[in-house]
Write a structure and sequence with these properties.
CBS-domain; 3-stranded mixed sheet
C-alpha cells in the first residue's frame, strides 16, 4: 500500500545559518523569510536547529526600543552555537508522514531536517507541514498535495 511520504510535504527551499553566525543575522533571516526553523549547517552537515522561539528567548526584549541599552544590543552578537538545539532528530525523504509524526512526538521536536544518503540537508518537515497534509488528504494514501515534490 502506498503512503504519503515526507518528500510530498517537506519544504525544499532551504536557508541555513552557520554556528558562528550571530543572532542578529538570524533575526534578519527570520524577518526576510517566513520560516520558523533554520538548520545550522557546517561542512554540509546539520549540526543544529534554531527556531524563532529560541531567538526570542535569547534576545533582550528591549532591542530596537527607545529603552535599549548596550547590554540589550549585545544580545544580537551572541553566536548561533550558543543557543541552537544540538540534539537534532533527522529523517529521510522516503519516510512516511506517520513515522515522521511519531518521531516529532517521541522526541518533542517541531521540525525534522530531511537528509539525503550523504547526510546532507535537502529539506525540512515541520508539524505545520504534517498538519496541512492531514487536513488536505485525511488518511488517503493516494492523495497528492498541491505543489508536492513527488
Amino acid at each position: 500500500m502506498s503512503t504519503l511520504r515526507v518528500d510530498t510535504v517537506m519544504t525544499t527551499e532551504l536557508v541555513t545559518v552557520g554556528p558562528d553566525d550571530t543572532l542578529g543575522e538570524v533575526r534578519e533571516v527570520f524577518d526576510t523569510h517566513r520560516f520558523h526553523h533554520l538548520l545550522v549547517v557546517e561542512h554540509f552537515k546539520v549540526v543544529g536547529v534554531i527556531s524563532d522561539r529560541d531567538l526570542l528567548k535569547h534576545l533582550s526584549p528591549f532591542v530596537g526600543k527607545l529603552s535599549e541599552r548596550a547590554q540589550d544590543a549585545f544580545t544580537l552578537q551572541r553566536k548561533v552555537h550558543q543557543v541552537m538545539s544540538r540534539n537534532v532528530v533527522t529523517i529521510r525523504a522516503d519516510t512516511d508522514i506517520a513515522q515522521a509524526t511519531r518521531l516529532m512526538l517521541d522526541h518533542g521536536v517541531s521540525c525534522l531536517p530531511v537528509l539525503d544518503e550523504r547526510q546532507h540537508p535537502i529539506g525540512v518537515v515541520t508539524w505545520r507541514d504534517l498538519l496541512k497534509a492531514v487536513a488536505h488528504c485525511g488518511l488517503d494514501p493516494l492523495c497528492r498535495l498541491p505543489n508536492s515534490a513527488a
